[in-house]
Amino acid sequence: MKPYFSFQWHITDDCDQRCKHCYIFAESKQKCIDSMTREDMQTVLKNCEDFCETFGRQPYFYLTGGDPILHPDFWWLLERFKEKHIPFTIMGNPFHLTDEVCRRLKDCGCIRYQMSIDGLEETHDWFRKPDSYKTTLDKVAMLNGAGIRSIIMTTVSDKNIDEVPQIIDAVVVAGAKVYAFARYCPTSEEKNTNITPQRYRELLAECDRKFRAYEEAGCETYFNRKDHLWTLYDYEEGRFTIPEDAEPDMIYGGCNCGNGHLTILPTGEVYACRRVQNSRVGNALNDRLADLWVNEMEAYRDYDKFVRCSKCELKAWCRGCPAVAAANSDGDFYAADPQCWKEI
């Protein structure tokens, strides 16, 4: 079986929330909503298939927006996925999920549906909109019942970091199949997060204790240690060791940017990572993705350029989050991760 290559495909900016930490509407509430036409979606899909055929991969789509279900051709696109036996995950909102919608999603090949919880009820609804917290947790059982793996994701910032352990409890009670968190990428200077490296390590330690307790109790929720700084934490705790047969110039893990991921926006613009604001490498409506991967994407594979990680023994497995680093350093992809606590 060929390995998968993941495309994060934003088919529309349309959304029925205006989250305070959204990178689409963060600095402009009057932004024009972009949505991809059916013809353009056909072009992009063919381009992605060509990419996978060229490199011996299978396509896997993370379909998102905005809220992708609001696109008028949402179901048309899902029928194309079904015809081509292409699996996908939806990254969206809970508001338009019904038993019938979930059944159709499953029938079209939806593997997972990801929603967000960004705080306890008061905090989450402040970030997003009233009743969003309750609605999100309520839809977990509906997704599970349809055979779709429910994912809850938290964006950690200085506004909600103290609530993350309690979010974990709420997610477990709701029955989510997967839980993960990632750090907020500030969209402007005034929105910079103030989480110190030591405070972030303390969060990982607290969550690690909670994850392990739930796992030992037989909890069905899978705790995805998504942030690559988990590798550093496990290394310090003696749970991760550098393999003796590791090749010195090989990259074994860490950020997928430049290795196994591309983002496509509703305008067709291709980004190395959507969370890295200046990482545009081309346009899927005009440029062959396979060519962009070989040429323009090379700018994101120069691992010796990482300011701190290039000097670290964990370079091949960690590298923190370049998107968070870039957001806190005027767009420098290779800057130091601001929450990394390791002394180099």
SSE layout and pairing:
Elements: E1 4-10, H1 38-55, E2 58-64, H2 74-84, E3 88-91, H3 99-108, E4 110-116, H4 121-127, H5 132-145, E5 149-156, H6 164-174, E6 178-183, H7 197-216, E7 222-223, H8 229-236, E8 261-264, E9 269-271, E10 280-283, H9 289-294, H10 322-327
What's the short version?
The chain has 344 residues and is an alpha/beta fold.
Description:
The chain is an alpha/beta fold. The protein is built from ten helices and ten strands. It has a ten-stranded mixed sheet. Helix 7 links the parallel strand 6 (about 180-185) and strand 7 (about 220-225). The chain is globular.
Features:
single chain; 344 residues; alpha/beta; 10-stranded mixed β-sheet; 10 helices; 10 strands; globular
User: How many individual β-strands?
Assistant: 10
Name the poorly predicted regions. Answer: none
Structural class comes to: alpha/beta
Ends apart, CA distance between termini: 40 Å
Largest sheet, if any? 10 strands, mixed
The Rg value, from CA coordinates, equals 20 Å
For the largest sheet, list the strands in their spatial order.
7-6-5-4-3-2-1-8-9-10
